[in-house]
Fold this sequence. Notes:
The structure is a single chain. This protein is of the alpha+beta class. 19% of the residues lie in helices and 29% in strands. It has three domains: 2-60, Structural Genomics Hypothetical 15.5 Kd Protein In mrcA-pckA Intergenic Region, Chain A; 63-159, Pseudouridine synthase, CATH 3.30.2350; 165-267 and 290-299, 2-Layer Sandwich (Pseudouridine synthase). Strands 5, 6, 7, 8, 9, 10, 14, 15, 16 and 17 form a ten-stranded mixed sheet that branches. Strands 1-4-2-3 form a four-stranded antiparallel sheet, with no helix packed on it. Strands 12-11-13 form a three-stranded antiparallel sheet, with helices on one face.
Amino acid sequence: MTATLTVTEPGRVDALVAGAMPELSRAFVQKLLEEGRVSCGGRAVKKSFRPEIGDVLTVDIPEPERPEVTAEDIPLDVVYEDRDVIVINKPKGMVVHPAPGHAGGTLVNALMAHCGSELSGINGVLRPGIVHRIDKDTSGLIIAAKNDAAHKCLAEQLKSHTLSRTYECVVVGNMREDAGTVDAPIGRHPTDRKRQCVTEKNSRPAVTHWRVLERFPGYTHLECRLETGRTHQIRVHMAHIGHPILGDTVYGAKKPVPGLQGQCLHARRLRFVHPSTGESVEVECPLPEYFTGVLDKLRKM
């Protein structure tokens, strides 16, 4: 497939293409540039190229490749499903995408078995169209698209902040206010490539709205609503304001909490505009047992 884009604002070509085509990830756009598939005036350009306003960019998107990921009959907690989308309540400990060290047992392996041939081809690989991600040790709702049209629609909603995602978490310390907003850009940590941090360098805007649900001695139960969706956003933002998420050994205390695997963070609600009907869809899942167990212990303190 070939797409043409007319440049309407200044910027680097990789950012311009990714912004104009939200269904493509930034990493995939950079891969296209590295392969010489993005051109301006008939000449392939590099990712650092800055076109002039009015220039026409040509983007050559190859046919999706068949994945090397095998379908696995893994039970899924399906909260919502139709011919366009599927929403899963992901358990804590399940990885979303196959990666080195996690070739199987992932949400993608399970979705490939569940969805059969209903796979989107976004980002160059035929696979269940994971529209957003949640971390391995974060539980809760994640939405996937069953076709390219649905994927593009949901990706655009992510970009325009109309796909609403609400989480619950337990943080360390007593929040002074009843509600607030963290507006702090997030980018890659300068020395640890596996971590993110609040930084002005090579970062993207990040906004998290929070409110207190319940208070305990030394801990606070929060609801967090994402306005943007950066990697580890809630975890980074809570640590940035001095209240890391309980059990988060990456951004909080290094010592694990006995009986708690990873951070106490759960994706509770999702609201989106349905790609076909245009109607608002809201889904919710209950707090998992590990989370309610933490709350029960805190209430007895």
